[in-house]
């Protein structure tokens, strides 16, 4: 049976479980500063939204934050690629696992709840009708993307 939610990586022969810990929050802040210098959304929001959009760079950033032991980017990227090869090139379980950790683990689940509350408040406060409709449509599209990503297909019985 296939594991549809991958939340650990094998690095140098050892399994490392993704954790939404204080280390994650500190590392995400450091990444956010670098991303801001490039004019990109970073930190928790950048990682979370990137995972929802199945962006490989966001997956790499997630694992750089989620593993307490400070492996370099290449080591983590190699581990992600090895895991995807084990899964016949399917990165989806890696994205699902990362989103699951962000939505359910320790400090991060509060962030995710606040993220959605803040988006809804922003939509409610938007005065321009067209902007509000666009924002509501974008929020719904993001939720639909998450539903699609997190839906596990039925196993085919032979």
> Share of helix among residues?
55-70%
Radius of gyration: 17 Å
* Strand segment tally: 2
Shape: globular
Structure description:
This protein has 158 residues and is mostly helical. It has one domain (8-150). It has helices at 22-37, 43-52, 56-66, 73-86, 92-104, 108-125, 129-150; strands at residues 8-11, 14-17. The chain has a two-stranded antiparallel ribbon with strand order 1-2. A hairpin with a 2-residue loop joins strand 1 and strand 2. Helix 1 crosses helix 2. The longest helix is centred in the C-terminal third of the chain and has 22 residues, at 129-150. It is globular, with a radius of gyration of 17 Å. The mean pLDDT is 87.
Name a few traits of the molecule.
two-stranded antiparallel ribbon; 5% strand; 2 strands
Write the layout of secondary structure elements.
Blueprint: E1 8-11, E2 14-17, H1 22-37, H2 43-52, H3 56-66, H4 73-86, H5 92-104, H6 108-125, H7 129-150
Antiparallel strand pairs: 1-2
Helix pairs in contact: 1-2, 1-3, 2-3, 3-4, 5-6, 6-7
Short structural description:
This protein is mainly alpha-helical. 66% of the residues lie in helices and 5% in strands.
